[in-house]
Design a protein that fits this description.
- With about 400 residues, the chain is α+β, with helices and mostly antiparallel strands.
- Helix content is about 35%, strand content about 30%.
- It contains eleven helices and 19 strands.
- Strand 17 and strand 18 form a beta hairpin.
- The longest helix is centred in the C-terminal third of the chain and has 28 residues.
- It starts with 5 loop residues before the first strand and ends in a 5-residue tail after the last helix.
- Bound molecules: flavin-adenine dinucleotide and 3,4-dihydroxybenzoic acid (DHB).
- The site of 3,4-dihydroxybenzoic acid has 11 residues, from strand 14.
């Protein structure tokens, strides 16, 4: 029980205006279900965070179904495949021919966020930015409470039917669940990714995932003039020890092919180090609090599953809440955690497998390296194995 403050009511209180929270809010609104999204950062901050870039076919379909896909269809790049580079050569995985016509779209996460915020606010949706002291209470009752201090310093309490914890890895929702009610599965990887954004023309038509003894490299893109690239580094790598020249020398060394391929270089305007871990918490629900997205699970970035899992959790939760409000049926809510976790674990397996196949592990010997090269040779040489990669990359169906 929380005492004091200004009192309000809504059907679903949503913590976090990331992809999970915003997609959920939009889908609920389209079903006539009210929500209030409470976000700690400002609108301009959440619209500027550089994160993911690869949207699965199902995420693209969802954006279109909810009417948020116009800019994505205009400005995103549809990619029909990826290139796996190993042993100095390129092998391509063709998605449509291996998955019955499915593909991915390259469109930055912060553009997805911008599109969803604009759409939700224009339709009269309620998003509170720049909040602080966010807390969730009375989770085991039929009227959980979401409280926070608003941007003007007013303490507010919202009585909800349900709360959706969409507040990412550093949020307050997961830690609000009593110790002992959750089981946490975690794997830390002994490396990170050094990510850059640079002003340069595209180096390749499609993404390149490159395995090299010096470490993994990913060549991605954001627009015809802005490129996104990553190289495997120590999790403790210091960004300021990497001049542009040193970074480009590392990319050239790791991306070398037998036929002398070179990346297109340009001024680097963003350098960040990303840690790599797999984490899943079970169950994704406590009482009337439902976790969705990174608040419940984290995947290493290899394979680009994080944003897409946030989208599929939001879809599964929106469907369950809709069934509750439209048909007074709580079966789907009761099954939410199991349904979402089945897909989460498949993406966890896929991103762990891609990470293991493509990265150089500290202390790995030549035997290990030959096994990884052989796995890549097999995956790109066998239609069955290529199909397994392709169907996971473009996204498994929601059950
Ligand atoms: P978030 O995006 O983290 O959103 C959570 C929101 O909650 C934030 O806005 C945060 O400010 C807010 N919040 C936190 N705490 C509070 C609080 N106490 N009160 C109120 N609000 C709070 N995934 C892919 O699918 N494809 C990719 O290509 C890909 N590439 C990536 C590249 C990088 C460099 C990184 C870092 C990640 C990448 N990911 C990728 C992962 C993807 O970005 C995340 O999985 C995704 O952002 C998860 O969405 P979310 O809504 O669950 O959480
Ligand atoms: C990007 C990120 C990924 O993790 C990935 O697997 C592919 C692309 C990107 O940021 O473009």
């Amino acid at each position: 029980m929380v005492v004091g403050g200004s009192h309000e009511r809504t059907q679903v209180g949503i913590v976090g205006a990331g992809p999970a929270g915003l997609l959920l809010a939009v889908m609920l609104r389209l079903q006539g279900i009210e929500s209030i999204v409470v976000e700690k950062n400002s609108r301009s901050t959440v619209e500027a965070v550089i994160k993911a870039g690869v949207l699965e076919q199902g995420t693209v379909d969802l954006m279109n179904e909810i009417g948020a896909g116009a800019r994505m269809m205009q400005q995103g790049f549809r990619h029909d495949g990826v290139v796996l580079r190993f042993d100095g050569r390129d092998e391509r995985i063709d998605f449509p021919s291996l998955t019955g016509g499915r593909r991915v779209t390259i469109y930055a996460q912060h553009d997805v966020i911008k599109d969803l915020i604009r759409m939700q606010l224009e339709a009269g949706g309620d998003i509170r930015f720049e909040t602080s002291e966010v807390g969730v209470h009375d989770l085991e009752t039929s009227s959980p409470v979401l409280c926070f201090r608003d941007k003007d310093g007013v303490f507010r309490q919202i009585a909800c039917d349900f709360i959706a914890g969409c507040d990412g890895t550093q949020g307050i929702c997961r830690p609000s669940i009593p110790a002992g009610a959750l089981k946490v599965y975690e794997r830390l990887y002994p490396f990170g990714w050094f990510g850059i954004l640079c002003t340069a023309p595209r180096s390749a038509e499609e993404l390149i995932y490159a395995m090299h003894e010096r470490g993994f490299v990913l060549v991605s893109t954001r627009s015809p003039d802005i490129q996104r690239m990553y190289f495997q580094c120590s999790p403790r790598e210091k960004v300021n020890e990497w001049s542009d020249d040193r970074i480009w020398a590392e990319f050239r060394a790791r991306l070398a092919t037998r036929d002398g391929w070179l990346p297109r270089e340009g001024p680097i305007f963003s350098k960040t180090v990303i840690g790599m871990r797999s984490l899943v918490v079970e169950p994704m629900r406590h009482g009337r609090l439902f976790l969705a997205g990174d608040s419940a699970h984290v995947v290493p970035p290899t394979g680009a599953k994080g944003l897409n899992l946030a989208a599929s959790d939001a879809q599964i939760l929106a469907r369950a809440l809709t069934a509750f409000y439209k048909s007074n049926c709580s079966d789907l809510l009761d099954r939410y955690s199991d349904t979402a976790l089945r897909r989460v674990w498949k993406a966890t397996r896929f991103s762990w497998w891609m990470t293991s196949m493509l990265h150089t592990f500290p202390g790995a010997d030549e035997f290990q390296h030959r096994l990884q090269v052989t796995e890549l040779d097999y995956v790109t040489g066998s239609r069955a194995a290529a199909m397994a990669l392709a169907e996971n990359y473009v996204g498994l169906p929601i059950e």
